[in-house]
Structure to design on (619 residues):
């Protein structure tokens, strides 16, 4: 038995009554973190900053001084993740991922099984080398179009898209930020447990490949049968969002006080519940008109409001209700505007904001017609609704406006833009840079941190990315989250809290075989990941898992790998992983749809992963 294990067993004889105040304080901070992550009362980045402040303020008990509190920002894992996000952004600017998705889907036709295969085959391998969040964001419109062309419900393909990206992330060290963070924690614990070390680029690729194959076979041959058709094939957006119930045409009558005024004047006169989404003047349509758009007698305003306000328009001064709902519906499908869904992305300025239709129109040149929040259609009043990641907006906009939205970071356009603008000529350079980063790190010529940062510089020097695009490519929520949870993990270790939890595990395990305890740790991590961040899961559980393994005389590295793999399997709900949120609205899913397909997959992969770890590394 290793000396570290003997030391742990000696410590494990300390009675439970020796729980210290330091431990209790740190457990309290952990509890606060779990509550905030679960309830989402604060944005993730704000929660992370709050954790740093609380840990430092409570330094006498947590042991986290100001220098340790901000150490997460300078941590190797944090900087590496930041660099990898920028590299992924460079690849996405070239259109390589979208082109791969289209080519893999070309043969799928109307076979749902072939469509799922194309989705998985295009997603999983790429996610092994690029951050899976932008991969899913780029492929949502591609996969949706594949489904519509093949007369298949997008609901059959979008959850498999998200799950395949999570599976692919386990192919290499750089597949997810979780792997990089777990590698850093493993290296830090190496001084206490000789079996632990920093992961190499392909440390667990053999097991990752098995997980990808098993998970893919499940999604292709079983999973899609478990998913209901929430969104009909080639869905009519107007019908799906019940737009006809909230859209009306009103004409500016002769002598109206609105004649000679602007859209702003009309909005003020008709009331705050009225949003002008089109202006029709002499058969010319203005899509998402600006507030300064002039109005004349005879102009027709297409407005979006609630049922009560539509009725009130019959008595409004200066306008006449001339169409509801058929005329308005015809206006919505006019050729000069494109109807599509926009998904609020992770780093969007919309997150946490109340929906202001006027501001949205001015900022994005798009008119909002409907809203899905957490998969539920918001029917009546959408004005003032607080937006969250994954919320889906039905909008009408010009092709140019959609192109601009697709290039930005605020929303994911759920259907491919009419005229996508990619730097296709830079694609070979971007791929070569990414391969160079991987090869240099794999050959251990330089650490992944240095090769990734060199790749960032190369992306800018070669013109794949503009200097100002570096910041847009970073998901700052993830960076702040890492910076906040890293000192939390340090406090858990230094206070003895991790050892105490491990002691409890050892006592509870009793006579259970080591491989069963390993499996239970996998399940615990998987369940925790479904309610809080995957990065938070590895920070909290890897120290506990390593200590518990030493306590029962098992291999700590096997337990670290089990936690790492389980943290990338958030298959039971939409909130455990950001890619699950990205497909929530476009797929029309309900909360239980994720567990319906994900619970069997979670169980199968728990067995495959644990057995694979036992075979390759021993327990």
């Amino acid at each position: 038995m290793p000396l570290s294990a003997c030391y742990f067993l000696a410590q494990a004889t300390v009675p439970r009554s020796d729980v210290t105040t330091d431990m209790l304080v740190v457990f309290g901070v952990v509890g606060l973190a779990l509550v905030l992550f679960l309830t989402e009362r604060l944005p993730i980045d704000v929660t992370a900053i709050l954790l740093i402040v609380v840990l430092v303020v409570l330094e006498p008990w947590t042991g986290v001084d100001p220098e340790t509190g901000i150490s997460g920002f300078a941590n190797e894992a944090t900087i590496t993740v930041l660099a990898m996000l920028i590299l992924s952004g460079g690849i996405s600017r070239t259109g390589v991922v979208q082109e791969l998705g289209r080519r893999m889907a070309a043969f799928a036709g109307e076979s749902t099984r072939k469509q799922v295969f194309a989705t998985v085959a295009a997603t999983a391998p790429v996610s092994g080398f690029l951050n899976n969040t932008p991969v899913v964001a780029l492929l949502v419109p591609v996969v949706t179009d594949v489904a519509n062309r093949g007369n298949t419900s997008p609901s059959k393909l979008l959850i498999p898209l998200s799950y395949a990206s999570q599976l692919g992330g386990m192919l290499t060290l750089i597949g997810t930020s979780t792997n990089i963070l777990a590698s850093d924690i493993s290296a830090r614990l190496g001084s206490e447990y000789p079996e632990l070390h920093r992961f190499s680029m392909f440390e667990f690729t053999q097991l990752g490949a098995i997980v990808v194959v098993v998970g893919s076979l499940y999604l292709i041959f079983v999973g899609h049968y478990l998913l209901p058709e929430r969104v009909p094939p080639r869905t009519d957006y107007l019908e799906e969002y019940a737009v006809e119930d909230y859209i009306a045409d009103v004409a500016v009558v002769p002598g109206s006080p609105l004649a000679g005024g602007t859209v702003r004047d009309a909005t003020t006169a008709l009331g705050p519940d009225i949003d002008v989404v089109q202006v029709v003047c002499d058969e010319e349509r203005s899509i998402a008109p600006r507030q300064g758009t002039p109005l004349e007698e005879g102009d027709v305003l297409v407005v979006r409001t609630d049922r009560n306000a539509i009725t009130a328009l019959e008595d409004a001064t200066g306008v006449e209700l001339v169409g509801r709902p058929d005329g308005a519906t015809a206006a919505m499908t006019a050729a000069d505007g494109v109807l599509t869904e926009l998904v609020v992305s992770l780093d969007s300025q919309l997150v946490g904001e109340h929906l202001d239709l006027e501001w949205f129109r001015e900022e994005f040149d798009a008119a909002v017609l409907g809203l899905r929040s957490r998969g539920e259609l918001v029917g009546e009043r959408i004005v003032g609704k607080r937006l969250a990641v994954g919320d889906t907006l039905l909008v009408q906009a010009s092709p140019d406006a959609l192109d601009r939205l697709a290039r930005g970071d605020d929303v994911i356009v759920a259907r491919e833009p009419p005229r996508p603008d990619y730097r296709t000529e830079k694609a070979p350079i971007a791929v070569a840079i990414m391969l160079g980063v991987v090869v240099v790190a794999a050959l251990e010529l330089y650490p992944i941190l240095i090769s990734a940062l060199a790749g960032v510089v190369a992306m800018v020097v070669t013109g794949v990315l503009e200097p100002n695009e570096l910041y847009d490519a970073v998901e700052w929520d993830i960076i702040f989250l890492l910076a906040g949870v890293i000192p939390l993990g340090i406090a858990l270790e230094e206070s003895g809290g991790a050892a105490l939890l491990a002691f409890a595990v050892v006592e509870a395990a009793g006579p259970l075989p080591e491989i069963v305890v390993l499996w239970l740790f996998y399940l615990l991590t998987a369940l925790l990941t479904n309610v809080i961040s995957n990065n938070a899961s590895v920070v909290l559980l890897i120290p506990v898992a390593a200590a518990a393994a030493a306590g029962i005389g098992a291999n700590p590295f096997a337990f670290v790998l089990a936690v790492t793999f389980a943290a990338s399997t958030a298959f039971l709900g939409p909130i455990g992983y950001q890619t699950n949120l990205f497909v929530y609205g476009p797929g029309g899913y309900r909360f239980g749809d994720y567990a319906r397909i994900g619970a069997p997959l979670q169980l199968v992969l728990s067995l495959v992963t644990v057995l694979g770890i036992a075979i390759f590394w021993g327990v």
Observations:
- The chain has a mean pLDDT of 84.
- The first helix runs from residue 3 to 12.
- The chain is about 55% helix and 10% strand.
- The first strand starts at residue 247 and ends at 252.
